[in-house]
Amino acid sequence: MQLLIVHHDPEMGDALVQMVKNYTRHYCHLVPSDAEAIDWARRHQRCDLLLTQLEAEGINGLALGSALSEIFSRMQVLFFPNYAADKRRLEIADSKVFPEPISGDDLLGAIEGAEQTPKDAPDFFHAVDVLQMCCLSRRNGALQMVKDGKSGLVFLRNGKIVHAETTAARGPDALFEIVVWKYVEFAYEGSVRPPLETITAPWDEILTDAVNHEKEEHKSQRQSA
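^ that's the sequence the OP posted. Answer follows.
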């Protein structure tokens, strides 16, 4: 695979490149900013995996991922957020979000997972993985999540989940429905404001409830099968 790492800290960026070179057979390039990543993309025909800081000087990882996906339609993305690993409230299997200190084994596992992903497969993220990342990063705006023709919106204000809606539901029920979808494609728009506020519980509490609901839903489906 061809990997592109976007990291503002040259020491950390070099360490990530060295790890990829030491433990995989993939090609890897490092750039320090969105602008240089776009310039690199214009000069290359392929990028299979983008590993980018979520936000740093000259880096907006969500916007960069969206822009490069327009150039490399089958590209997968992994994020390095700016919060510490011990701030996470929920552990997600096969996470694509890697706060510091970065687990080398987990990151290498995610790179291997990207390599094994079928070339025509969408870039799926666990819904809770994305929501936790945006909440801990204190994001505003809206996340659109899509799965098998179903679409949902989750609205954020300063890292709090304040509203969610799908075709069938609003508020906590809509959030529970989205989490049941599990792996989704997503898009983020920071300028969108919530049309109303239907969720008042802390984000980690409502996501924990949603995960428990998803587990019960899955258990019920297995029992009825």
